[in-house]
Structures are given as structure tokens and as C-alpha cells.
Amino acid sequence: MAQQSHLPILRDVRSIRQLRASMHGPVCLVPTMGLLHEGHLSLVRLAAEKTQSIIVSIYANPSQLTGPDEIGSYPSTLDTDHELLVALNKQLKHRGSGTVQAVFAPTDEEMYPCSPPDDIPRGLGSFINILPMTGILEGADRPSHFVGVATVCLKLFNAIRPDKVYFGEKDYQQTVVIRRLVQDFLLDIEVVVGDTIREADGMALSSRNVFLGTRRRAFATVLVRALYAARNGYEAGEVERSELVSLCKQVVEEEQVKQGQLLNAQRSNFEVIYFELADHESMMAIGTVNPEKGAVICGAIRMLPLVVLAYGEDGGRLDGNDTVNTSEVEISVYKGHMNIDTVIVCIE
């Protein structure tokens, strides 16, 4: 277990509530599922610019993961995550800004005291369902995902009582769900959304990228390219859903033809789940972009298991035998400008 002398790791609700009661002034929460990377750290830095006291939660919430395989294979990196936050705190202190006061890493028993967290599919337990936005787009493909997200966030908000919470824009539909959660349940919390941090090839930093392995990770940029095509179309004056979605599909269809011509040891097979143009506040489908209001165009693909793993190849989780890999890319359009946001949203 990581040394806690510089930054305590609290494992139960009672301890985090005691700490919160002793803190003066505004408190910020940065919720994570672990596997911290620069995207998470950028949210901590953003919080530190405005607030002296920050809590980072690290909890791989089972109710938003998909099935026992994903739950069982989701890595636990608490020690490494703690070391990253300790190092970041040193930088923040040197700058005279706010710092992380504690890591809240609760157990399943603390977060789900009355029923197992995997009871959503059976309709048992206490869960938060914010319809229709939890059941569309990514939520349609993974019906329990956003129910789990909303539920665990409400639990974290109740345990910590933050004044502000910080989320990354790359999980755009998630930010919409959280904003509606805060509004509908009359929570006195400000939701702050930080910019997406990208890798050199345009992919957003995501904890799940490492699950893909070398071949599928390199291929996953097809969605970035598809959404860039839509952005270029929009900037050229196209505002109709049919045309913008068609531009996306054209890119992936061309890529499917190329992949079909490769050897099994080179190919990354995939299926398109959806492309959609949606209202940026509700995620409901719309037919035309109103540049003054904004919109989101998003897409998801299901990356299939590798047929053949080349000798010495990093196949990612389960050596490329994953049943489903889903990548989602979202472009947010605000008053005439499009931003591309990419995230690997599901590995089964």
C-alpha cells in the first residue's frame, strides 16, 4: 500500500465525512475510476486554480462497467495513482495553488451497503435513472452504464458534499447526465467541465486506451478522422444531419474496405454502432445544426476480437480476445465552432 504520510487514502464514508467537516472554504471533487493519466491531472490543476482544497475519488464503479469480465479485468492502480497525485501536489504547493487533501478510494461495501452493485440488470437495488438521456446513444448500447454513473456520482456527492465537481469534456454524454442529475435533484454543486487532453494522433487520453493493444489502438483513430470529416463539412456550410452523418460513414466504410484487404495478423475488424447529430444539452437527435445553440455529432464503433495475434504483438486486454471494444467520438458545436472529443467508452 502506498505511503499516506503526504496524502491520506480514505477507504470509508465515515472517514471522508470527518475530513470534509474539518475543511474550511470551498471543496472540489475530481471523480475518477483510477488508471490516472494527464487528463485527470489536468482536472486537478484546473480545480487548484480556483480552490485550495481538492478531493480525488478513485473507485472503479462496478455498476457502470459491463458484465463480470470487464469488472474482473479492470486494473487496480491505487498505488501508482497515489504516487502521481503526491508528485502533483508538490508542483501545486510550489506554485502556491490549491492541493489534493485526500484520496477517497471506497470499497464496494461502502458504496453499495444494501445490495450488490451489479443488480441493475435485474432491476434490484437503489439506482438513479435519468431518462431519456441515460438510454440513448451510448446508453442504448450499454443500458446500465449511465444509470451506474448517475448512481455512483450521487453517492459520492452525498458522501463528500463538494462545492464543485470536475469532469472531462471527452466524456461528453456523461457531463450532460451529471448536469441533469445536479439540476433535477436540487444539488448545490457547480459542475465544471475541463478541456480534452489529446495524444499526438488526435485520440483523447483515456484510461481504457491501454486495453486496446497496439493494433487496435492505432486503428481507433478512424473515428477521429470520421468526425474531422463531419467538422470539415460543417465548416464548409453543411448543417443537415443526413449529410454530416454521411460524411462520417464514408470514412469508416472506406476503412472497412481497406481492413478487409489485409492479412488476419494485420486486420482490425469493427462494426459501426451509430453516428448521430444531437442537441448538446439533451443528447436527443436533431435534424439540423443551429450554430447559435450548438449541437453534438457523435459516433461509436464496436472493435471485434483480433482474428490472429502476431508473434510478440501487444494485443491489449485478454491478448485481443475481447468480445467487444467500443470507441466513441463526439464533436461539440458551439456557436459555429466544432471541438472533437474522443473516448474509448466500453471494453467487454
Overview of this structure, please?
The structure is a single chain. With 348 residues, this protein is α/β, with parallel strands linked by helices. It contains eleven helices and ten strands. The two termini are 29 Å apart.
Helix percentage: 25-40%
In total, the number of strands is: 10
Nearest-integer average pLDDT: 83
Q: What is the CA-based Rg, rounded?
A: 20 Å
Q: What is the H-and-E element order? A: EHEHEHHEHHHEHEHHHEEEE
Q: How would the global form be characterised?
A: globular
Annotation keywords:
single chain, 348 residues, alpha/beta, 6-stranded parallel β-sheet, 4-stranded antiparallel β-sheet, 36% helix, 20% strand, disordered N terminus, disordered C terminus
What does this entry show, briefly?
The chain has 348 residues and is of the alpha/beta class.
Helix and strand layout, with pairings?
Blueprint: E1 9-10, H1 13-22, E2 27-32, H2 38-50, E3 53-58, H3 67-73, H4 78-95, E4 99-104, H5 108-111, H6 138-141, H7 145-160, E5 164-168, H8 172-184, E6 190-194, H9 213-219, H10 222-235, H11 241-260, E7 270-278, E8 295-303, E9 325-334, E10 337-347
Parallel strand pairs: 1-4, 2-3, 2-5, 3-4, 5-6
Antiparallel strand pairs: 7-8, 8-9, 9-10
